[in-house]
Amino acid sequence: MSKRSIVQISSSEVRKRRSGVVKSTKKQRKLCEFDIPTASSLEVRQRSFEEVIIQNNQDDPIVIEEEDEEIVTIKQIKCPICQIDITNFEIYQKEAHAESCLEKSTETASKRLLTAKVVTRPKLPQIKIVSFVNGHKIVVDGFNFERDPEISQYFLSHFHSDHYMGLRKSWDHGTIYGSQITVDLMINKFNINRDLVRALPMDQETWIEANISVIPLDANHCPGATVFLFQEWDHTRQNVVKQILHTGDFRSNPQLISRINSICSSALDQVYLDTTYLIPGYHFPSQDSVLSVTSRFACQVAEKGIRHYFNDSQQTIFKFISRATANRTLYKCLFLVGTYTIGKEKLAISIAQALNTKIFVSEKSSRHKIISQYISYFPEDLITHDVKQSCVHLVPLSTLKSKESIDIYFKEHSKIYQEIIGFIPTGWTFTNRYAKPPHLPTQDSRIQYCEQLLQDNENNSLDLKFILKQYKKHNKYQIFNIPYSEHSSFKDLALFGTQIHSKEILATVNLHSLERIKDMHQWFKTWQAIRATRCHRGIDTTVSDRTQ
Question: What range(s) does the DNA repair metallo-beta-lactamase domain occupy (predicted)?
């Protein structure tokens, strides 16, 4: 008779297991910014990892999971907004849930404010205020705060909820400036009094005061996102007395750097910098490379079929279904591109153009209503409401969260397409040899690290292997994480900081701890030291496309 070993578990251990404290092969990390990876103790390892970024109004930290071979304790993860358990969600499920939850909470909060008799708002933080020599002040991306009677001009860098939070129909603190796309989206969503908004022409000087001008530049972020260059002039408007750059959220590139340097003949007095990825290790390929490689991959898959492309010869139900439907479908593949409410559209555009097809958006969907506000962002006639004219669909990230959610979406289109391939654009999944941040205790060591990183172009391009290794032989649907980011990587920021001459840099993200603020300040000093050394040696600091 076989023997069985009996393991006794204490009641306290049972309670621990029931409460979600279990042994696992995953490691916990804390974050406190929506769409912003932040952690003062974050260690980026030389292996694939995924992160979830969620923020609530109170900046409460949550837990991040990272794959690891070590056995550690993992705590339950709850959505900080609705408090449901999202511990076992995939990265894109957590992101999609957080985005949806934040949108709903913002709308709910706005409705409550409309009926509230007394509204108490926090004091406007200094980081939201831009001040000029003559005493004039403006606000950038700060609408959810107490009114300042001295300020009547507000700027919205782009239409993401963590930047426009606080706006509603009755908001009347002053005039709101933004790009035409941002203004149109704002009016559509909040029905704000049109007399209180002003659309700024891109890449053109607009005078907002007698001696203060602003030039909006393309932030290379979501549609309509802008970098604001403010210039204060003397009474003759001939000499600049102060120059301030506010990046909002941006993905820096050589074109933007060159444009800023061509406008500013002298050093910027202040730069308000998007420091989302100002953590060594967050270096991912250039957008152009990601778009090019992914589009070529999609074309090859569309021609051969996903399983033939991967030489998947297994005799499965998938192959049988594919053969049975091959003669009655219009397309071999349907490509689903997950997006935010607004943002990540460039990936869908690139794939559609490579396939010589259109992008489908259902005319009945809420997404169509939003896209109609910035339809000019897309190439002419690229958007269609006829599903038969397209094999590329823009979908919410939540559609790609599970086999069941994809099943629901595919059911409506199964007579047109044989199989589904999904793309989840996110910069968080990419690693390379710089992924494990070294110990950099001194400024000299930081300078050496930056110089080496800026001179090494090996990892600027996406290797197709990164996509191919994600293929899962037994899965009904193939979903690929694509390292497409609309925020500047660490290398992008280092290049920006060493090529843009500024007297002072102010971080606008990752302000949750003094430790992180000090660390970012050290990087600012490092960039200034590199630039000063190059100028002293007479080295040409102009940017070329080769750096990207």
Answer: 380-512
Share of the chain above pLDDT 90, in %: 61
CB 277 within 8 A of CB 489: yes
Which pLDDT belongs to residue 321?
Answer: 52
SS3 381: coil
How far apart CA 86 and CA 90 sit, in angstroms, is 9
pLDDT of res. 94: 53
Helix (H) or strand (E) holding 499: helix 490-499
Determine which helix (DSSP H) or strand (DSSP E) holds 309, and give its type and residue range.
helix 306-309
Instruction: Give the predicted TM-score (pTM) of the model.
Output: 0.76
For 247, what's the count of Cα atoms within 13 Å in the CB-facing half-sphere?
Answer: 30
Decide: 480 and 470 in contact? Cβ < 8 Å: yes
Q: Are 245 and 268 in contact (CB under 8 A)?
A: yes
Q: What pairs with residue 226 in β-bridges?
A: 218
Residues 6+ apart with CB under 8 A from 227: 157, 216, 217, 218, 219, 245, 246, 247, 248, 250, 256, 260
Q: Where are the alpha helices (DSSP H) in 53-191?
A: 91-115, 161-164, 180-190
The predicted-structure confidence for 22-77, as pLDDT tens digits, reads as follows 444 444 433 333 333 333 333 333 333 233 332 333 333 333 233 323 333 334 56
Burial of 285-297, coded b for 16+ CB within 10 Å and e otherwise, reads bbbbbbbbbbbeb
CATH class of 126-280+490-547: alpha beta
Query: pLDDT (tens digit, 9 = 90+) per residue, 167-178?
Result: 999 999 999 999
User: Angle, to 10 degrees, between the axis of helix 443-455 and the axis of helix 490-499?
Assistant: 100
Residue 365's pLDDT band (boundaries 50, 70, 90)?
confident
Average pLDDT, the chain: 80
- Residue 223 and residue 183: Cα distance in Å, rounded? 12
pLDDT at residue 27, as a whole number: 41
Give the model's pLDDT for residue 38: 37
Q: Is the confidence at residue 385, as pLDDT, over 70? A: yes
Q: Which long-range contacts (CB under 8 A, 24 or more apart) does 190-194 make?
A: 190/110, 192/167
Q: How far apart are CA 141 and CA 139, in angstroms?
A: 7
| pLDDT at 78 (0 to 100) | 60
**Residue 273: what are its φ and ψ, rounded to 5°?**
-110, 135
d(CA 108, CA 95): 20
pLDDT band of residue 120 (cuts 50, 70, 90) is: confident
At CA 60, angle to CA 56 and CA 66, rounded to 5? 100
Pick the CATH number of 287-430+459-482 from 3.40.50.11540, 3.30.1020.10, 2.60.40.10, 3.40.50.12650: 3.40.50.12650
Give the helix/strand (H/E) hosting 515: helix 514-537
| Joined tokens for residue 403 | 């086999």
pLDDT digits (tens, 9 = 90+) for 459-468: 789 999 999 9
Element (H, E) at 85: none
The distance in angstroms from the start CA to the end CA of the chain is: 69
